[in-house]
Design brief:
A hairpin with a 5-residue loop joins strand 5 and strand 6. By secondary structure, the chain is an alpha+beta fold. The longest helix is centred in the first third of the chain and has 12 residues. It has a seven-stranded mixed β-sheet with strand order 6-5-8-3-2-1-9. The chain starts with 10 loop residues before the first helix and ends with a helix.
Length: about 160
């Protein structure tokens, strides 16, 4: 009798099977292909990726090793709420602007890479714009400054 050796599945096949069975795919790198929107802050132009779905917001700028100075990520939520952010798996130092529906910056928070410290909005907001650390300060922007662009027009009643 000829008995063939037992063929075990490759580890990559097991991983793919597990992900299919659980219905989730693990994010293994930065998300670079999100929709983009132009935002302005006075004479300054921002090319912002838009994180609108729960999964896009959860991943955010994780795993990014660099980001051009004029780029950022705009987190868009369905309803105004106290928004809190941390920096788990985020390699870049960032500043978060918590932004009201009309584009007014409510408050800013400087965030350290790889930290699980929570940084929250001072009042309920639907938008959070993350930029490289210190970007807002270098442009003279602070709480009360106004951002403009399509997301803020659409949010107005």
């Amino acid at each position: 009798m000829n008995i063939s050796p037992l063929r075990l599945p490759r580890p990559t096949h097991l991983l793919a099977l597990a992900l299919v069975c659980t219905g989730t795919w693990a994010q293994v790198g930065p998300q670079m292909d999100l929709r983009r929107v132009e935002i302005t802050a006075g004479m300054h132009r921002i090319d912002a990726q838009v994180a609108a779905s729960p999964q896009e917001r959860q991943i955010g700028l994780m795993f990014r090793r660099d980001m051009p100075q004029h780029e950022g990520m705009l987190f868009v939520f369905e309803q105004p709420a106290t928004q809190c952010f941390w920096m788990k798996n985020t390699l870049l130092p960032l500043t978060a602007a918590f932004v009201a529906d009309d584009g007014t910056i409510v408050n800013l928070a400087d965030m350290k890479p790889m930290s699980e410290d929570s940084h929250c909005s001072a009042r309920p907001v639907r938008f959070v714009l993350e930029m490289n650390h210190g970007w807002f300060a270098r442009k003279g922007l602070k709480a009360g400054s106004r951002l403009a662009g399509e997301p803020f027009k659409a949010a107005r009643p």
